[in-house]
Amino acid sequence: MADAPPTATLSPYNVFWLVHVIMELPMGILAFLSPADLPVRDLTPSTVLLARVLGAFLIASSISSLLMFGLPDFLPGKRAAAVQLLLFHAIVSSIYLQLDNDVLHVQLPAVLANNSHVQEILSKVSISSIVGILHGVLSLLITVWWQATIPQVKGAAQMAHAKSQ
C-alpha cells in the first residue's frame, strides 16, 4: 500500500493570493485592454506598450494566484511563485512611495470625493503613498505566510527523506 501524500492545512495567510488578485486583476485588465484610461499623465505610444505588457503580466499572475491559492503550501512551485510576488510587491511599493504626486491623476467617485474623512486622509497622504503602502503590506503578508508555512515544508522534506530510505 502506498503512503498517502502529506496532508496540509492551508494557512490563513494564504489569503494573500486572493488579495493579489483583487489588487492587480482590475488594473491588469484596464492596462491591457484600455491603457489610455489608466490614471497616469502624458501617455505616449511607448508607455502604452509598456502598460499593455504590464497588464498582461498582472492578468497572468492573477490567474496563477487563483490556481496557487488551493495548493499545499509545501510545494516548491507555490513557494517560488510566492517569492516572485513578494519581490514584485516590494519593488512596486518602493516605486509608488517615491513617486512624484503629479504623475497619477485619480478622480475619486463622488461618494468618496465628497466624504470629509477621505478628504482629510488625502490632505495628509497622497494616492501614490496609499498604493505604495498597500503593496508593502501585501509583501509583508507574503513574508508572514512564508515563515508560517516553513514547518509544512520541513515535514514534507522529512517524509520524502523517510520514504527514500
Rg on CA atoms, Å:
20 Å
Q: What is the number of helices? A: 7
Order of helices and strands: HHHHHHH
Can you summarize the main beta sheet? none
Note the overall shape. elongated
What level of helicity do the residues show?
over 70%
- End-to-end separation in angstroms reads 17 Å
Q: Count the beta strands.
A: 0
**What is the residue-mean pLDDT, rounded to a whole number?**
89
Strand percentage: under 5%
- Poorly predicted runs of 5 or more residues: none
SS class: mainly alpha
Number of domains: 1
Transmembrane segments: 15-36, 48-69, 81-99, 125-146
Keywords: Membrane, Transmembrane, Transmembrane helix
Q: Which secondary structure elements does this structure contain, and how are they paired or packed?
A:
Elements: H1 15-33, H2 45-69, H3 76-97, H4 110-113, H5 116-124, H6 127-148, H7 150-164
Structure summary:
By secondary structure, the protein is an all-alpha fold. Helices cover 70% and strands 0% of the residues. The chain crosses the membrane at residues 15-36, 48-69, 81-99, 125-146.
What does it look like?
By secondary structure, the protein is mainly alpha-helical. The chain has one domain (13-164). Helix content is 70%, strand content 0%. It has seven helices and no strands. It has helices spanning 15-33, 45-69, 76-97, 110-113, 116-124, 127-148, 150-164. Helix 1 (15-33) packs antiparallel against helix 2 and helix 3 (76-97) packs antiparallel against helix 6. The longest helix is centred in the middle third of the chain and has 25 residues, at 45-69. The chain is elongated. The model has no long low-confidence stretch (mean pLDDT 89).
